[in-house]
């Protein structure tokens, strides 16, 4: 993609190619799942074609996006606080890294230890 027009001479438009690549990389979808999803939108894209797109464009996308991501460390903690949201009191569970940057958050109407544990386990698995 270092060339001026990386999608030149491709059968599909660039936004369709990028959408398939993004969905494959972000969600746990197979190439055949993406093929079915595109077919549901009226586009026939073979799963092998999507595989080739990912192999060709994903490394370049990663190289271009990496500098714009927020740097985080492996050290993080979960905070719990009670705040008012739209005139209702809610519990806010917040995962923060060592610099205090918010990694993720979760609202709960009741204080629940099992919910906090699930949130903490979900953050560890990421």
From TrEMBL:
Extract one GO BP annotation from the record.
Answer: transposition
Which InterPro entries does the UniProt record give?
DDE_dom, IS_Transposase, Transpos_IS6
Which sequence ranges form a coiled-coil region, renumbered to this chain? none
Q: Which GO terms describe its molecular function?
A: DNA binding
Q: Locate the DDE domain: which residues?
A: 74-121
- Top-rank taxon of the source lineage equals Bacteria
Q: Which UniProt keywords apply?
A: DNA recombination, DNA-binding, Transposition
Under the heading PANTHER family, the entry gives: BLL1675 PROTEIN
**NCBIfam families in alphabetical order:** transpos_IS6
User: What is the name of the protein in this document?
Assistant: Integrase catalytic region
The organism named in the record is Ktedonobacter racemifer DSM 44963
List the top taxonomic levels of the source: Bacteria, Bacillati, Chloroflexota, Ktedonobacteria, Ktedonobacterales
